[in-house]
Amino acid sequence: MTSTIVRRVQNVPRPSTPTLAFSKVGVCILPIAQIAIGAVYLKECPRQPYIPIYLIVVGVFGLALGILSCLPCAQKSENSENNPLSCICTAWNSLSSLFLFCWFIAGNVWIYSIYQPNYTKNETDLETYCNKTLYLFAFWSTTLIYILLGLFLVIGCCVLCCMMMCGVADADDDV
Length: 175
Known about the structure:
This is Si:dkey-19b23.12. With about 180 residues, the chain is mainly α.
């Protein structure tokens, strides 16, 4: 039964081209917004000046990963030999994903450590100020990652449990 589930997961049908294009555009929207917000409010958070830099860097790397995933360099050739470009793409994706993970952890520290900064700009005390748009965008875009991660985990577990409980029959099973 377990091998049946594994075979079904390995042989998932490819989504249609419009679906892939729509998902790629959807994935690129958040990084573009992160770059824009980080650049516009670059000097607007003296309380934690790394927050706009965090947004710009995570946006650039997220956008680069999204765009580069559209390239066919990661596909294997028909004779199952690894092509050198595929090895380079795999190395790039692995290193940039590792960097993004570490950068995400650093961003969490910078964002959540100053939770509820002073949103009003005061001439006498600029050190506690952080632009409200910048901070809330960084806060909620980071929190959104946790929400989506939790949803994927819960939905994945539910689907797996349903597949195991229903005992999905395979065409070559004796039913």
